[in-house]
């Protein structure tokens, strides 16, 4: 029976024909995305990895000129695209390492593709002969090697399969053909998983560009002004441009993420932010990139949101080496499709990187929670102080109201002195007398108030009595009292025993006396 290779349809039996279609690719269709270094020719995808950049013209924030090449949606030129560090803050060059250098396909990658009209991102590039030969050689190394020409080739096939599973090593299969290099990006590597990353929601007009420095956050913050001046010099020292820092965040491995944007002021007094793609394209020029590297910048990317067409294109095409079934299941299991997008994790290094990023983010969240907790405590203290002041002001307001009322009464008395009582005043006096009678009635409010007052006095009296009955004894004094009472108890027990012995003696004497009386009577008779 043939060796079943993880459900991919591979067998170790040389007599079985190998079907390339079992790998989910075809020699006549589009190859899957490439996560490593892009080797695509004209018209092919640049992949998610590092792409070749060319030095651009002098720095200008005007609209890019069309060089006649066909990019994503027509004539575009060298516009960078990146997911930002929230989409993966690693420094790798592939999508599995956090879309480190941005998506390098079509007009929004960092390469300028020399494509013909109509062969942009969404066209179907032809598969190169080198890729077809690589796929055939991989299939031969895993299923039917002919290196030794005997039964040992079956063992070699299993060994090659094990190397492919692990994602490292070389697969020998023919004496006349070079061995196949197994990497973690090969379709058979088992150390793969699919995670989810947050899609950026910043627009190109916001002009946010991320710079990752190989320096600690404390160093960046202490030298932030010098950093801004250096970036301004890199931009040409133009007085109409102002570099601003949006935020600084710590990354694992002593790296720091700095988000910047550039404001351009026109002579008429208006200002605007330079688009993120334009600023990123300038930073990707060879001479500018070398200057940034001297400052310690290891990675730069434009933080812009994905268009619906780009998200659809990413989701429809499984990345290289990822099973389409697993990719479809990852899309189904997406907890928030509107904000998260599935990304592959290849190898333990990528898993470790995401774990470090998660730990770093957890620490930042905990720090923020601690700050919020301190703010809440301070607000609670301020609230308590404010409530006390409000109560104090209420009492002052009540006292001032009473004083004002007394002043008004005296003023009204002086004003009305010598005048007879008017009709409205007589009615007011009658109403006040009626209220006074109701209050003084035994069964009305006064009686109830007297009853409540008596109950309050009784409760206060009982509370005072209970408070007086409470007492506390020192522990040492209590121990001495216990010892004294124990001695008293022992003395009483000893006294009771002596009394019992004396009673027995008295009983014995009485018994002897009772026996001697009849004998004496007989003698005297």
Automatic annotation (TrEMBL):
Positions of the Nup54 C-terminal interacting domain: 471-509
GO molecular function: structural constituent of nuclear pore
Keyword terms: Glycoprotein, Membrane, mRNA transport, Nuclear pore complex, Nucleus, Protein transport, Repeat, Translocation, Transport
Annotated Nucleoporin Nup54 alpha-helical domain residues: 318-456
Pfam families reported for this sequence: Nup54 (PF13874), Nup54_C (PF18437)
GO terms classed as biological process: mRNA transport; NLS-bearing protein import into nucleus; nuclear pore organization; protein localization to nuclear inner membrane
Cellular location(s): Nucleus membrane; Nucleus, Nuclear pore complex
Membrane topology: Peripheral membrane protein
Keyword Nucleus among record annotations: yes
Physiological role: Component of the nuclear pore complex, a complex required for the trafficking across the nuclear membrane.
Subunit structure as annotated in this protein's UniProt entry: Component of the p62 complex, a complex composed of NUP62, NUP54, and the isoform p58 and isoform p45 of NUP58. Interacts with NUTF2.
Official protein name in the record: 54 kDa nucleoporin
Gene name of the record: Nup54
């Amino acid at each position: 029976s043939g060796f079943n290779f993880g459900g991919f349809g591979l067998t170790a039996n040389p007599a079985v024909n190998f079907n390339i279609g079992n790998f989910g690719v075809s020699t006549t269709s589009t190859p899957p995305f490439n996560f490593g270094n892009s080797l695509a020719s004209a018209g092919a995808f640049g992949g998610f990895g590092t792409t070749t950049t060319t030095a651009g013209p002098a720095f200008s924030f005007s609209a890019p000129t069309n060089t006649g090449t066909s990019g994503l949606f027509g004539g575009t030129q060298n516009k960078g695209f990146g997911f930002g560090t929230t989409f993966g803050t690693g420094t790798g060059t592939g999508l599995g390492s956090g879309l480190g250098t941005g998506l390098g396909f079509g007009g929004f990658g960092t390469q300028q593709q020399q494509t013909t009209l109509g062969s942009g991102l969404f066209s179907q590039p032809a598969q190169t002969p080198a890729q077809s030969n690589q796929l055939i050689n991989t299939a031969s190394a895993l299923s039917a090697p002919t290196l030794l020409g005997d039964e040992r080739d079956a063992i070699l096939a299993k060994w090659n399969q094990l190397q492919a599973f692990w994602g490292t090593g070389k697969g020998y299969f023919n004496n006349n053909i070079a061995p196949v290099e197994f990497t973690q990006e090969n379709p058979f590597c088992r150390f793969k998983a699919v995670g989810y990353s947050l899609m950026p929601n910043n627009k190109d007009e916001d002009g946010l560009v991320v710079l990752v420095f190989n320096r600690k956050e404390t160093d960046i913050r202490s030298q932030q002004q010098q950093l801004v001046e250096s970036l301004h010099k890199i931009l040409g020292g133009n007085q109409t441009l102002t570099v601003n820092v949006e935020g600084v965040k710590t990354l694992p491995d002593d790296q720091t993420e700095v988000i910047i944007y550039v404001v351009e002021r026109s002579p008429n007094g208006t200002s605007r932010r330079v688009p993120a793609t334009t600023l990123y394209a300038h930073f990707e020029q060879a001479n500018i990139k070398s200057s940034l590297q001297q400052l310690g910048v290891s990675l730069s990317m434009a933080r812009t949101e994905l268009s619906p067409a780009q998200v659809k294109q990413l989701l429809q095409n499984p990345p290289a080496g990822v099973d389409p079934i697993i990719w479809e299941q990852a899309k189904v299991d997406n907890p928030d499709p509107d904000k998260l997008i599935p990304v592959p994790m290849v190898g333990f290094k990528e898993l470790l990187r995401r774990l470090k990023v998660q730990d770093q983010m957890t620490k930042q969240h905990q720090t923020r929670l601690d700050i919020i907790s301190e703010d809440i405590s301070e607000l609670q203290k301020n609230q308590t102080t404010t409530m006390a002041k409000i109560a104090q002001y209420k009492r002052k307001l009540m006292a001032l109201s009473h004083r004002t009322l007394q002043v008004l009464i005296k003023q009204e008395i002086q004003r009305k002195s010598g005048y007879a009582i008017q009709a409205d005043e007589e009615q007011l006096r009658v109403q006040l007398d009626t209220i006074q009678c109701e209050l003084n009635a035994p069964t009305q409010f006064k009686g109830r108030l007297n009853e409540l007052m008596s109950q309050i006095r009784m409760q206060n009296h009982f509370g005072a009595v209970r408070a007086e009955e409470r007492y506390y004894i020192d522990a040492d004094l209590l121990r001495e009292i216990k010892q004294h009472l124990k001695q008293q108890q022992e003395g009483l027990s000893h006294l009771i025993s002596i009394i019992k012995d004396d009673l027995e003696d008295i009983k014995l004497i009485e018994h002897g006396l009772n026996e001697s009386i009849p004998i004496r009577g007989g003698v005297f008779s």
